[in-house]
Amino acid sequence: MSDTVDIAPILAGDVRTAARLMRDLDDRRGNALAMLKALFPHTGKAYIVGITGNPGAGKSTVVDSLIAHYRAAGEKVGVVCVDPTSPFSGGAILGDRIRMQRHALDPGVFIRSLATRGHLGGLSRSTFDVAHVLDAMGYQRVLIETVGVGQDEVDVMKAAHTTVVVTVPGLGDDIQAIKSGLLEVADVLVVNKADREGADRTERDLMHMLDLRATGERKDVEIVRTIATRGTAAGSGITELAAAVEAHRERAWTGESAIPRARARAAAHLGELVRALLADRATAAMAARGGLSEIAQAVSEHRSDPWTVAEDLVKSL
Length: 317
Ligand SMILES: Nc1nc2c(ncn2[C@@H]2O[C@H](COP(=O)(O)OP(=O)(O)OP(=O)(O)O)[C@@H](O)[C@H]2O)c(=O)[nH]1
Ligand SMILES: [Mg+2]
Fold this sequence. Notes:
Blueprint: H1 8-11, H2 15-26, H3 32-39, E1 47-53, H4 59-72, E2 77-83, H5 91-99, E3 109-115, H6 123-137, E4 141-147, H7 151-156, E5 162-167, H8 176-179, H9 182-185, E6 188-191, H10 199-213, E7 222-225, H11 238-253, H12 258-288, H13 292-300, H14 306-315
Parallel strand pairs: 1-4, 1-5, 2-3, 2-4, 5-6, 6-7
Helix pairs in contact: 2-6
């Protein structure tokens, strides 16, 4: 592996070099990591917006409309579609790509999909990696879409500066967002499909829940209604959504409050990397001893206790 890497094509925004780098990063191949390190001083300019929510809530449609909004404002937009649920990058990502198809030929838009496969170090690590590359390429706006179902998605959202949670009318009394802990991470709440019955009710319920869970000072979360299928047209709510994101950016990422936030974001990334490195080493150490099931033999026969075996293994790293 050479220490000198050529990052000039990435900085110039070359799409093919970037796509190759992202693939190599997935496999932790060759000098991909050296590239990432060299790119780091050129990052920190992109504003990253995470869009999450239940399956079918309209996240991709919202992303598609936001792309149009930011493009009209002259910004270059990078998109990361994360699909933690399908092991073989099946339907959902395909749907995402189709939803954003109209931007496929726009050189100011770069769309990258991540599936679980090939992301041993965790989706969150891969998301941070890709976001850094897009940032270095000069995409001022990076949008991350992920289905909100569990801890994976909450972790992925740690890469975002502003997290938008998309809900829809008619989810009933116990809005599903709560179940998945999504309300916890929301900086902006969207009631999409506002052309449907019940948007008022949903908005009231969400407001109520924000009040309920507020201990002391209520978290400042704007609720925006959208009809994402109308693109950026008046009444789509997309302009209002973009404004709500900017308002959060203003509150959270300017002045004093930005300092602890930036540190928390860096800590999340760092923690992820350390865990991944240790996991890689542990896997290698176990492989060197014939694999986990081989090591487990002594435990299953009660010749060794599992705590000592685990400690010995970690000590050998
Ligand atoms: N009526 C109505 N339908 C919408 C709206 N936004 C999206 N849809 C439709 O909802 C369906 C799902 O939209 P997607 O954007 O794929 O939703 P998603 O949340 O990305 O879905 P997954 O990625 O599969 O979880 C599509 O048929 C959209 O056309 C809206 O504002 N109103
Ligand atoms: Mg989608």
